[in-house]
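Hypothesis: this fold can be encoded by more than one sequence.
Test: take the structure tokens below, design a sequence, compare later.
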């Protein structure tokens, strides 16, 4: 499976900037993700969640990856993003997300929307949604949060709240500001917990 991954470049070991590849026949699914995580033994496994996995969660994935790369933590993290819905499965990041990240110099990685599954709960250490609707849908999928892995991104800042969906607002500048604040707050939380 790792040979297939190297060919399709859906995921590379360090999640650094990768070249555009042909779209895979189907999105990478939970069994394959679990195999990768078990073999690579990543220390901190982070999953971002939003409704469709093309706007907010992909932005958070790329922003956090850029932050950890710049801080020298690349080998300490595995970062991914998924959807609670099936509406955008197989689609790449929204053009508004891509444009905003390019504007601020954040590398846009190869990614295709996929839906979170109940089994993904055990594959990640932190599962982070963007709003309360995401949270409710995650709990519907997972059933319960026995290990307290599930949170909302802005809860890691001094202004807890929801990150508005730019699919509806069209305001990718505001979404980026909130995502960046949340990701920086999340890293500060990990440092405070002694995990970095």
């Amino acid at each position: 499976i790792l040979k297939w991954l190297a060919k399709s470049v859906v995921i590379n070991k360090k999640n650094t900037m990768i070249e555009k590849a042909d779209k895979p026949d189907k999105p990478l699914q939970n069994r394959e993700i679990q195999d990768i995580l078990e073999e690579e033994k990543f220390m901190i496994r982070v999953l971002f969640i939003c409704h469709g996995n093309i706007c907010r969660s992909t932005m958070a994935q790329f922003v956090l990856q850029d932050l950890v790369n710049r801080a020298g933590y690349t080998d300490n993290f595995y970062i991914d993003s998924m959807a609670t819905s099936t509406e955008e499965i197989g689609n790449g990041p929204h053009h508004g997300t891509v444009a905003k990240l390019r504007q601020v110099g954040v590398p846009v990685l190869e990614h295709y929307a996929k839906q979170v599954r109940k089994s993904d709960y055990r594959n990640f250490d932190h599962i982070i949604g963007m709003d309360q609707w995401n949270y409710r849908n995650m709990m519907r999928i997972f059933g319960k949060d026995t290990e307290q892995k599930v949170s909302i991104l802005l809860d890691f800042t001094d202004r807890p709240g929801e990150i508005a969906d730019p699919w509806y607002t069209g305001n990718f500048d505001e979404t980026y500001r909130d995502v960046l604040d949340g990701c920086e707050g999340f890293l500060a939380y990990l440092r405070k917990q002694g995990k970095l």
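The chain has seven helices and four strands. The longest strand covers residues 44-50.
Hypothesis status: open.
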